[in-house]
Specification:
By secondary structure, this protein is an alpha/beta fold. Helices cover 32% and strands 21% of the residues. The chain has a single domain (5-206), classed as Aldolase class I (TIM Barrel). The strands form 2 sheets. An 8-stranded parallel barrel has the order 1-2-3-4-5-6-7-8, surrounded by 4 helices. α1 runs parallel beside α7 (192-206) and α6 (165-172) packs parallel to α7. Bound molecules: the ligand O=C(O)c1ccccc1N[C@@H]1O[C@H](COP(=O)(O)O)[C@@H](O)[C@H]1O. GO terms for molecular function: phosphoribosylanthranilate isomerase activity.
C-alpha cells in the first residue's frame, strides 16, 4: 500500500501545530469559516504556520466565502492548497490560481461520480458525511461502502479517529485521511496523544 497522507484540520493553537508536525502530519488545515468553533482568521493562520517546515502542506478551508475575502486571505497567508467545503462551483474554485480540493458531503455513490465529472481540475475530492444544515466538521462518519473506484485522488473525512482509521484505510484505501474532531480534547483544542495514536494507526496499516 502506498503512503496514506494525513491531514490534521481545525488547528487553532501553536502548540497543536507543533505536535501535528512533530508526529508526522503531511498537511495542516485551518478553518477560515467564522461560524465554526475552530475558526481562525487568515492573520492568525499566518502566525500559526510561520515556523511550519517545508514539505508540510498548509490548507485553508472555506465555506461559501466571497472571492474578495479569499483573495485577501491569500495575500495575508500563503496557503498551499484551498479546501472548499460549501456549494462552490468549479468556476469559483479555480479562479484563485491555487490548487484546490473540493469537499463532497456524501449521500450516494452518484454524488461522488457527479463531483468527479464536475471538478476535473481539483487536486482531490474530499469525501465527508452528509449532515443536514451542517457543512462539515460534524464528527460523523458515512457509509464507506458507497465509495466507488475513482480516477482522481480522494481524501476520506468524517468521524475518523484512532479507533476506526485503520479499518477505514484497509477497507477503502484513500489517498489521504483528514481528521478534526477525532483528535480533539474539545472543539478547536487538539490532544497530543490522540494525534499521535491517529497517525501511528495509519502508519501501522501501511506496513
Ligand atoms: O471543522 C470544522 O469546524 C468545519 C466547519 C465547516 C466545514 C468543515 C469543517 N471541518 C472539516 O470537516 C471534515 C470532517 O471533520 P471531523 O473529522 O468529522 O470533525 C474535515 O475535513 C474537517 O476539516
Amino acid at each position: 500500500m502506498s503512503k496514506v497522507r494525513i491531514k490534521i484540520c481545525g488547528l487553532t493553537r501553536n502548540q497543536d501545530v507543533q505536535v501535528a508536525v512533530a508526529e508526522g502530519a503531511d498537511a495542516l488545515g485551518f478553518v477560515l469559516y467564522a461560524p465554526s468553533p475552530r475558526a481562525v482568521t487568515a492573520e492568525q493562520a499566518a502566525l500559526l504556520i510561520k515556523d511550519s517546515p517545508a514539505f508540510v502542506t498548509t490548507v485553508a478551508l472555506f465555506v461559501n466565502e466571497s472571492a474578495e475575502e479569499i483573495v485577501r486571505a491569500l495575500t495575508v497567508c500563503s496557503f498551499d492548497l484551498l479546501q472548499f467545503h460549501g456549494d462552490e462551483t468549479p468556476q469559483f474554485c479555480r479562479q484563485f490560481n491555487r490548487p484546490y480540493m473540493k469537499a463532497i458531503r456524501v449521500r450516494s455513490a452518484e454524488d461522488i461520480h457527479r463531483a468527479v465529472q464536475q471538478y476535473p481540475d481539483a487536486k482531490a475530492l474530499l469525501l465527508d458525511a452528509y449532515v443536514e444544515n451542517l457543512p462539515g466538521g460534524t464528527g460523523q462518519a458515512f457509509d464507506w461502502r458507497l465509495i466507488p473506484e475513482l480516477s482522481i485522488p480522494w481524501v476520506l473525512a468524517g468521524g475518523l479517529n484512532a479507533n476506526n482509521v485503520a479499518d477505514a484505510v484497509n477497507q477503502v484505501q484513500p489517498f489521504a485521511v483528514d481528521v478534526s474532531g477525532g483528535v480533539e480534547a474539545s472543539k478547536g483544542i487538539k490532544d497530543r496523544q490522540k494525534i499521535k495514536d491517529f497517525i501511528s494507526e495509519v502508519r501501522n496499516v501501511e506496513r
